[in-house]
Amino acid sequence: MRRLVWLGLMSIACGRTEVVTFTLPPPVTVDAGRDAGSRDAGVDAGLDAGFDAGLIDAGFVPKPCLDGTFSLSPAEPVVKLVLDRSCSMDALISSTQTRWEAVVASLEATLPQVDRTMQLGGLAYPISIGEPCVIPPQAGIWPARGNVALLVSNLRSLRPEGPTPTEAALGAAGQVLRARRAGNSARAMVLATDGEPTCTSSPLADTLTELRRAATDGIPTYVIGIADDASLRASLQAMSLAGSRPRTGSQGFYSAQSPAELQLAFRTIRDQVGACSFLTSSVPDSDGGIRVTFEGAEVPTDDGGVGGWRWTDRENGELALTGPVCARAVARPSSLVVTVSCSARAP
After folding, report:
1. How many CB atoms lie within 10 A of CB 114?
2. Is residue 347 included in any domain, yes or no?
3. SS3 state at 50
4. How confident is the model over 6-61, as pLDDT tens digits?
5. 138 with 173, same domain?
6. How many domains does the chain fold into?
7. Is 210 inside a domain boundary?
8. φ and ψ at 190, to 5 degrees?
9. In terms of domains, do 239 and 305 share one?
10. Are 164 and 15 in contact (CB under 8 A)?
């Protein structure tokens, strides 16, 4: 059976290089954006078949508009981790761990709990020291259930190197997720970085543009700032707002100044991604309306302040709860309903 081999010149630490080879299980057929549940099904779910020759949302059918009241169902998360492993990630975050080592250890501690319920993938950037600012569209591990052991193993084989092509990494990860749109899923990216983007003439502006483009396409991004200092916080704040998944409060990004804080950030985001995305079987048309209620009380639309609800992919009937209402609804999901009204249609 054919296997795919990814061969690249990687530096094991800043200034030292060696060749690292990854051998991936053979691609398999994925049924309507949902894997069969096996680990082998998860590795990039077809680096050649699953990519669909660049076609986006192949086979996707928008949700119809139906008058009435409907229960919301939890969405299956499809998540791509976008992890900065640039040279600065070799700095210590504690007396015993570098920033990169803390990232890998945090994922190893927080991801196994959702290995069978969340489709997970990852991309550590830069990819190659030969072309450090280039991220191939098929790079990394594509999201699927059962991927955690493979993901952690591959990340452990890497070391910090090179610049910080954040915009290119987000673009590649977003392209993968655009091809994974399905009626039962909610897509998201998690960006963990310790520095300013590089590699373009306007790196921060280009990164913000990519984050906004992904959010517009129903792919929000959570942002973690690793060992951030005062000079980086404005950029991290802007990224968190552009990604449309800021923390509630004045600081939108998750600040991780220690291994414990980094693990808490990943755990908090894991729980939010896994619990706060819901799907409705009916979506209002252009002149229709929708009312979200929990335990009989209307949930307000999220204004970026105290929380509420907002569309993440309206065509797909996907919405997210934010703030305190998320935790309450997760505990009692049967009390969460939507009432949809459609515009009058000519007989």
Report:
1. 18
2. no
3. coil
4. 333 333 335 433 333 333 333 333 333 333 333 333 333 223 223 333 334 445 78
5. yes
6. 2
7. yes
8. -125, 115
9. no
10. no
- As a whole number of Å, the end-to-end CA separation of the chain is 57
**In terms of Cα–Cα distance, which of 158, 129, 187, 151 is closest to 39?**
151
Close Cβ partners of 19 (under 8 Å, ≥ 6 residues apart): 7, 8, 9, 10
Q: What is the CA radius of gyration of the chain?
A: 20
Digit-coded pLDDT (tens) for 238-297: 999 999 889 878 899 999 999 999 999 999 999 888 778 888 999 999 888 999 999 889
Cα separation of 78 and 122, whole Å? 11
Provide the whole-model pTM: 0.76
User: Which CATH number covers residue 231?
Assistant: 3.40.50.410
Q: Name the β-bridge partners of 297.
A: 294
Cis peptide before 126 (omega within 30 of 0): yes
Q: Which domain holds residue 213?
A: 4-56+76-275
What is residue 344's DSSP assignment? P
Q: How many whole angstroms separate alpha carbon 82 and alpha carbon 275?
A: 20
For residue 225, the SS3 value is strand
